[in-house]
């Protein structure tokens, strides 16, 4: 049996979208590197971290919005579908797009907050980061709750992030262009598990 990959997916993007529409509300489905993934709903600390970021962007970049739980078409051929914990884009950016899965063009940054499930290592730290890079999203911010770190993936070239800088909670974290803000991450210590 051939393993599922982006070249040999388990199902077509259209079949996935139909399945995702019918999925129970207790889970989110994603199609990453051709493989169907089940993402658990976020816990309260996970939601609090996304809300913390949302409020910061409202304060420092009011012309932008951090869209929580934004479905994006990702990967080299955009046949992957990921639910980003946050997608930073111009205000009202997604208003003209139809369906649950938006084109990533114009997204400045995605945010992933790790979950406490068995697939988080591969899904959040590897597969989704690669998919976001292949989709051309300039910055990916990974908030890694297991390690109490923030990893800034940037310097996108040829579908790959060239810079991957890690910072412990409490450090100032510079989000490079096109985001251009520095996060004071001291409050994340309050959200540590």
Note the run of SSEs as H and E. Answer: HEEHEEEHEEEEE
What is the name of the CATH topology? tt1808, chain A
DSSP strand tally = 10
Class by SSE composition: alpha+beta
**Could you give the distance between the termini?**
40 Å
Proportion in β-strands: 35-45%
CATH domain class: Alpha Beta
Radius of gyration: 16 Å
Poorly predicted ranges: none
Percent helix range: 10-25%
Description of the molecule:
- It is a single chain.
- The strands form three sheets. Strands 3-4-5-6-7-8 form a six-stranded mixed beta sheet, sandwiched between helices. Strands 1-2 form a two-stranded antiparallel ribbon. A two-stranded antiparallel sheet has the order 9-10.
- Helices cover 22% and strands 37% of the residues.
- It has a single domain, classed as tt1808, chain A.
- By secondary structure, it is α+β, with helices and mostly antiparallel strands.
- The protein is built from three helices and ten strands, in the order αββαβββαβββββ.
What descriptive keywords fit this protein?
193 residues, alpha+beta, tt1808, chain A, 6-stranded mixed sheet, two-stranded antiparallel sheet, 3 helices, 22% helix, 37% strand, globular
